[in-house]
Amino acid sequence: MTSFIYNPKLIQQKQLEIEFLSFFHGHGFGIIDLPVVEAFDWGGMTEDDLLLMPQRETWVQNGTVHALRHDWTNSIVRYLNKYKIDAERAVYSGPVFHTGSEHSQLGMEVFSDSSAEQQDALGLLIEFMDGRLGGLPRMAVISHYALLPMILGEDRMAEPAIRRALSQRSESALKGLLGNHPLPALLGDRPEAQIHKLRSIFPEISPILEELTGWEETLRRSGIEAVYPDITALPAQSYYDGVFIRLYGEGHTAPAASGGQYTARKKAFGMGIFY
């Protein structure tokens, strides 16, 4: 006879998912679900698909590559490029699998280029985290994926050695690669000083910095006082092309939530919570 063990943690997880979906549905978000198994055609794979394959759990069946869902936003982008989601705002919950491990994710997406609507959704996410996940995030890191291409130029941004040095935040490596470019020296300054110097050295990026200021104000109004810029942020996939945000809990080095602006048939913004 098979016996079942009462698992309160599993019940708590399911309750959290229901509360999250209900909270956002009550604010006009449509609830979406997508298959946990994704199918890929070898000939139709994008560069993003190929780059992510080593991190995916994959197998081949009848000549088609199958993979467990690696990331909700990636799945939604793939879905949007093939079909149409009727909702202007969507919320989801469910597992993701990568590098041999399973994680649960809660998230929301806004399919609109309105910064006001996107920032309103961010405020709702922080409100839910404060009320249901043990309090407000203590810190936010914010950036914009257009900054580095404008500072370095598209050609330099495409160089693997430079991208590697940026991901490692290696001031010495960047100095060797970029010579007398001002970026390596900026990395040694406090984040606030970095932005001030960037504004004076590269006046053409002022509109982006003003946009970041608007997002920073949204975060501060939501109760997050420690907001830091990151001028070295690199997009994980090519469709990320705007503001990028990470939220951190007290004493944690891994983000409690992250996301940003991207393009998938139209402008969008999404944030995911890992729990």
TrEMBL record:
GO terms for molecular function: catalytic activity, acting on a protein; glycosyltransferase activity. Coiled coil: none annotated. Residues 9-270 form the Class II Histidinyl-tRNA synthetase (HisRS)-like catalytic core domain. InterPro entries: aa-tRNA-synth_II/BPL/LPL, HisRS-like_core. It comes from the Bacteria. The keyword Glycosyltransferase applies. The keyword Glycosyltransferase applies. Keywords: Glycosyltransferase, Transferase. SUPFAM superfamilies: Class II aaRS and biotin synthetases (SSF55681). Transmembrane segments: none annotated. This is ATP phosphoribosyltransferase regulatory subunit.
